Amino acid sequence: MSTRTKGFLYGAIAAASYGMNPLFTLPLYAAGMSVDSVLFYRYLFAVIVLSILMKLQKQSFALKKTDILPLVIMGLLFSFSSLFLFMSYNYMDAGIASTILFVYPVMVAVIMGVFFKEKISLITMFSILLALSGIALLYQGDGNRPLSTMGILLVLLSSLSYAIYIVGVNRSSLSNLPTIKLTFYAILFGLSIYVVRLNFCTDLQAVPSGWLWADTLALAILPTALSMICIAQAIHYIGSTPTAILGALEPVTALFFGVLLFHETLTPRLIVGILMILIAVTLIFTGKTLAKKMGMLLQITKK
To answer: For the residues of 224-249, what is the DSSP string, one character each?
Structure first.
């Protein structure tokens, strides 16, 4: 299997598993648990699972001094991304929130262009406009009822945090760390946010039932530990922007479970908005190939 194929495979698994967030989160909300309690358990169990994996693989927990600050920053970024996204679920359907989150590949492309001098093509610029137009359609919500402005803001903040995390992992010294070790410390440092927000766990709610304990464990493993490990691997193999583009599977997965299990409604307007966003980020990914083909066609025409 080629390096590029491995990268795409890891990226697809990361996106699909991350899109399962609503599947495990909404039942916990329905049981009366707060955002911070849910995320505390999510990160705590993920840390435990990853520490076991590191022990089984006989990996060292030791860190270089130069890696500590970047890991703290990356952990806080990923944690804030989770916090903003999970908070948005209280303002809008989870499937729609996950779809709006998908603008993060556009943000990654912009960050790479502005700060790392990657050329932003006309196709990329068109894709950005198309994605923003799709969000505008989603903002109209179901029927004539607009989506919550606070919900939109929270998801966009989540997208930005996630985009910076993806670029940061690729462009810092952390790219040389073993994947599981990187993920372990990022989640460990990210956990600190919820410890503080829960007043050092004095406000932590207990998980109400055995079934929801299983749900909490699944939340820690699939859209957290597994997703972050695969994201780091994909970034290593194919870079930040392609990894971000593969996030197309996130809103698809989230919407699938939202409609199937939580009876969320898809109107024609929402479908069009979703398709516009998916087309926009797909164009970013295929832009170079399209440009080359168009150039070849122009040369053939001139001849």
So the answer is: IIIHHHHHHHHHHHH-HHHHHHGGGH
Helix (H, G, I), strand (E, B) or coil at 206: coil
pLDDT tens track for 173-194: 887 889 999 999 999 999 999 9
Quick one: which of 18, 13, 11, 7 has its CA closest to 250? 18
Give the other-Cβ count within 10 Å of 296's Cβ. 10
C-alpha span between 224 and 167 (Å, rounded): 18
Three-state DSSP class for residue 142: coil
Specify the pTM: 0.83
* 177 phi-psi bin (left φ>0, alpha ψ -120 to 50, beta other): beta
What's the whole-number average pLDDT of the chain?
85
* Residue 260: pLDDT band with limits 50, 70, 90: confident
Residues 6 or more apart whose Cβ sits within 8 Å of residue 62: none
Residues 257 and 22: beta-carbon distance below 8 Å:
yes
Amino acid letter, residue 227: S
